[in-house]
């Protein structure tokens, strides 16, 4: 009798895992569709999907990686310094090399009029710390990799695949910046992902994204577009 109950419990657990795995696959496909077809504002569409997903699973943001850290001040300083270093690398190496290889420049038309415009700078900064930093990191470094991990496991292979797929989707969400922008954004995604796993919290990626964009916006405000240092 006890063995029969144990077998029944095992079967129910197996069926439950299968159902959640199938649901995770569907969610990832829906998220990818939103990005590839540029549905409305993909980040907001996927945030809605993520909210529904968390409600169905009866879990909170912590399940996506929003964990507390023991020394938040130290993490903030470390991430800020790393964001500065990453910006220097992008401007001094990545962008110049891509410019010379492709004969193109990153399309920054969406920031036209930002130079010297304090009101526009404040609007962009507000958007960068909300929709971009919190919103995009929740989607591309939290929700999508987590669902991919449900399908392929939370070991190294699952994590690497989650980072690769989510980074590619993040890059495709920025096609308005041209091929250079897509490549640079993909590399940014890898950088944010590395920090997310290095500090074991999604807040590290949020901070890195916010600092990275803030440095770029403030620089654009004072000197205009920079396509590389050489």
Description:
- There is one protein chain.
- The protein is mostly helical and 230 residues long.
- It has one domain (2-223).
- The chain has seven helices and no strands.
- The chain has helices at residues 2-36, 42-57, 72-102, 118-152, 156-172, 178-198, 202-223.
- α1 packs antiparallel against α2, α1 runs antiparallel to α4 and α4 packs antiparallel against α5.
- The longest helix is centred in the first third of the chain and has 35 residues, at 2-36.
- The chain is globular, with a radius of gyration of 20 Å.
- The model has no long low-confidence stretch (mean pLDDT 94).
How do the helices and strands line up, and which of them pair or pack?
Blueprint lengths: L1 H35 L5 H16 L14 H31 L15 H35 L3 H17 L5 H21 L3 H22 L7
Helix pairs in contact: 1-2, 1-4, 2-4, 3-6, 3-7, 4-5, 4-7, 5-6, 6-7
- Fraction of helical residues: over 70%
What share of residues are in beta strands?
under 5%
Rg estimate, integer Å = 20 Å
Unreliable spans are none
Count of domain modules: 1
- Mean pLDDT across all amino acids: 94
Largest sheet composition: none
* End-to-end separation: 76 Å
How many individual β-strands?
A: 0
Instruction: Note the run of SSEs as H and E.
Output: HHHHHHH
Structural class: mainly alpha
Helical stretch tally: 7
Shape: globular
Provide the descriptors you would attach to this structure in a database record.
230 residues
Summarize the structure.
The protein is an all-alpha fold and 230 residues long.
